[in-house]
Amino acid sequence: KTVTVTAAAKTKVYGESDPELTYTVAPALIGTDEFTGTLERTTGENIGNHAIGQGNLTLNSNYAVTYVPADLNITAKTVTVTAAAKTKVYGETDPELTYTVAPALIGTDEFTGTLERATGENIGNHAIGQGTLALNSNYAVTYVPADLNITAKTVTVTAAAKTKVYGEADPELTYTVAPALIGTDEFTGTLERATGENIGDHAIGQGNLTLNSNYAVTYVPANLSITAKAVTVTAAAKTKVYGETDPELTY
Fold first, then answer.
1. Entry pTM
2. Contact present, 154 and 215 (Cβ < 8 Å)
3. How far apart are CA 90 and CA 218, in angstroms?
4. What dihedral do alpha carbons 6, 10, 16, 20 form, nearest 10°?
C-alpha cells in the first residue's frame, strides 16, 4: 500500500529548542499498523532553512512510503540594546558609553564594536548612536538611543581687594580664577567698581566680565578702599612791633 508522509513546515527563533517534527499521512494506515522512528532535520543552529528529512521514520514492508519533505526555518532572535544616558562636565573626558541588552544572548555570542556619540564639546545633549555595535546575523538588533549631556563647568572668579589714596588714579582691578579654564577659553570684559571718589570702601563688581556658555561663573566680590590723602600745613613765622596790628597769619 502506497502512503504519502508529508512533513510539516516548522519554525523557531534562534536559540530556542527545536519544535516537535510532525507529519501527516495519506491515506490512513490499516488496522493497528503504525510508524516507528522519527523525522530528523539537518544539523545547524544558524538562521535559515534546515531540511526536515525522513530520518528513521518507517513502516512495515506492507507499505511503500513516499516522503514529502519540508523545512525548519530558524529566524533571527530580536534583542533590544538600550543605551545608558551619560553626563559629564565641560572639558572632562567622555565617560564610557554603556548599554543593556534584553533578552540575554545565546551561549558565547557577544557584541563587537562600540556605541558612538555625536561630536561636539559644548554644553547640551549629544546623541549616543549605535555606532559599530553589532551582533552576528542570527540576531535582529533594536537600538534605543540616549544622550550624553555635557553640563557647564563651574569656575569661581575672586576679585582682588584694592586700595588707593584719595585723588589717585584707580589701580587695575584684577582677579583669580579656579579651577583653570579649558584650552584656549578666556574671559572677555572687565571688573567694574562702584562710582565715587570719596574715602571709604567701594564695591568691586563683576561688571561685564564673562565667559562663553560652557561655564557657570561664581563671583566673589571685594572692595576698592579709598584712603585719606595726607597733607602737611606749615604755619609761617610772623613778627610785629609792640602796639602794631597783628600781621596776617599765613601757611
1. 0.81
2. yes
3. 16
4. -30
Name the residue among 122, 47, 119 with its Cα closest to residue 88.
122
How many residues does the structure list for the chain? 251
Say which residue the cell 562636565 belongs to. Answer: 89
Rounded to the nearest angstrom, the gap between the alpha carbon of residue 245 and the centroid of all alpha carbons in its chain is 95
Cα–chain-centroid distance for residue 45?
37
| C-alpha cell belonging to residue 234 | 606749615
Do 150 and 92 meet the contact criterion of CB atoms below 8 Å apart? Answer: no
For residue 148, which of 94, 100, 212, 80 has the smallest C-alpha distance? 94
Provide the sign of the torsion angle of the four alpha carbons 56, 57, 63, 64, taken in this order.
negative
Q: Give the N- to C-terminal CA distance of the chain in Å, as an integer.
A: 149
How far apart are the C-alpha atoms of 67 and 6, rounded to whole Å? 6
Whether the bond into 145 is cis, omega within 30 of 0: no
pLDDT band for position 89 (50/70/90)?
A: very high
Q: Is 247 exposed, middle or buried (0-12, 13-18, 19+ CB in 10 A)?
A: exposed
Element (H, E) at 157: strand 153-159
Cβ proximity of 89 and 155 under 8 Å = no
Give the C-alpha separation, 52 to 40, whole Å: 6
Cell numbers representing residue 224 in the block = 576698592
pLDDT tens sequence across 16-56:
999 999 999 999 999 999 999 999 999 999 999 999 999 99
Beta bridge partners of 177: 157
